[in-house]
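Below is how a single chain appears once it has passed through the pipeline. First comes the sequence as given, then the structure the pipeline wrote out for it. We keep one example in the README because the format questions we get most often are answered faster by looking than by reading.
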Amino acid sequence: MEFIQNNLDIVYFVIFCIFIGIEVIANVPAILHTPLMSGANAISGVIMVGAVIMMFQVSPTDYVTLTVGGIAVFLGALNISGGFFVTGRMLKMFNTKK
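Resulting structure:
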């Protein structure tokens, strides 16, 4: 409980990002999901920037926050690269055969 009280602004920011993410994902029609995947996965870049900013603001001895930030950076990078990889494979389906 003390962690939440000390980092209330970060908790509010995370909750706000969750609601924004749900709105962005929910308003994309199913037929457009695959073509927009690379752009939508670029939103993970915002997660990575937020995680890095969070990691710069904490003390070097706060291992819990540094670990959560590191996991967020890793998962954001994984989501971005996976999204671009899948989109690249999808676009190859539309190339003409030689």
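DSSP finds six helices and no strands in the chain.

See the next section for the split statistics.
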